Amino acid sequence: MRRQKRSLFIGSVLTIATLFITWISPMLLASPAYAAGVAVSATPSELTAASATDVTFSYVSSAEYASGDTITFSFSPVVSAVAACATPDTDADNDATPDGAFSGLSTSGGTYTFNASTTTATTAVSLCLKVTAATGNYSLAMTDNKAVPANNDYGAALLYAGDDNDVLVAAQVQPTLTFAIRNTADDADTNVCPLGVLSLATVKTCAYRLKVSTNADSGYTVAITSNGGLVDGTNDINAVTEGNTVIAGSEGYGVAFVGGSATGGSITEQGDFTDDDTPVPTSPTNLYVSDGNNNPTAPDTTNTALVTHRAAIDANTSTGNYSQTVTYTVTASF
Predict the structure, then answer these.
(1) Alpha-carbon distance 206 to 85, whole Å?
(2) Which of 76, 107, 329, 334 is such that its CA lies 20 to 30 A from the CA of 257?
(3) Which CATH number describes the domain made up of 177-332?
């Protein structure tokens, strides 16, 4: 009898265990699906304020849509107007087969209802709405309602109207313009050019540099003038004839000019100053022009212009202390 009762007890325990395992195993083996957040894009996302624009909203669905499923689009804040696009969108998955249609369009959004199943929603869903909005940033929230609620998706995108997502950054650079007359080594300022004692045997010279610094993109012009000839009272040393050079033993006075270069452009010598030697004018005359900015270093014998004064006398040149004041002016083109 004991042996028989033990068999019955063991059998009962096995039966209960089998029932328990049978009941719990589906729970252990099932792979439930859950609603999914998806990335929603809007093309274009930037709108001209108050201008009706066809906007395509796209995302990848976590499951295919069936007939009767819906997608709800909601704008916050409300836009100025919502309408069907130029060609009303009936093909949600772009497989050339109609899937549904929009209804209930208003400034707060609208609903797309499927009247057929999709086949490529898990690759991409794209739907078009014509949106008009005043300047501002607008949230477009997407939620769907599938036959299987666990497959529902949700997401949001932003629309930017009237450049309301833009920041204008403004800065100003002040114009700069400096000018100096420098010695030939460009290591010191100077305002004198001593020719020294003139003689029949040699041509006497003195030289200096013109140094312009500017951030003028269109460059600058340097003009030259003087208060007259190289004179002592009523006596003067004859100006060299244009196209000729000052030579020893023959009275003559003029300048030789080398325009150099500019860091941000090229230098063009002007008028008679394209060759040597040249008489010093007595009225403002363009000497050279730069077509870009110039920022010479210190010292800089490349991006500075070199002016050399040259003088010679003959046996009839009168004794005296001769002088001339030469003036330069600079005009920048910003």
Answers:
(1) 81
(2) 334
(3) 2.60.40
CA distances from 207 to 71, 240, 255, 295, 300 (A): 85, 17, 9, 22, 15
What pLDDT, on the 0 to 100 scale, is given for residue 142? 98
Measured CA to CA, the distance from residue 21 to residue 26 in angstroms comes to 9
| Residue 32, pLDDT score | 43
Indicate the residue type of 157: A
What type of residue sits at position 139?
Answer: S
Q: pTM higher than 0.70, yes or no? A: no
φ/ψ (deg, to 5) at 161 = -110, 140
CATH topology for 36-161?
Immunoglobulin-like (2.60.40)
Give percent of the chain with pLDDT exceeding 90.
Answer: 89
Question: Is 177-332 the same fold as 36-161?
Answer: yes
SS3 at position 285: strand
User: Is the confidence at residue 34, as pLDDT, over 70?
Assistant: no
Q: Is the pLDDT of residue 18 over 60?
A: no
Helix or strand holding residue 153 (H, E): strand 153-161
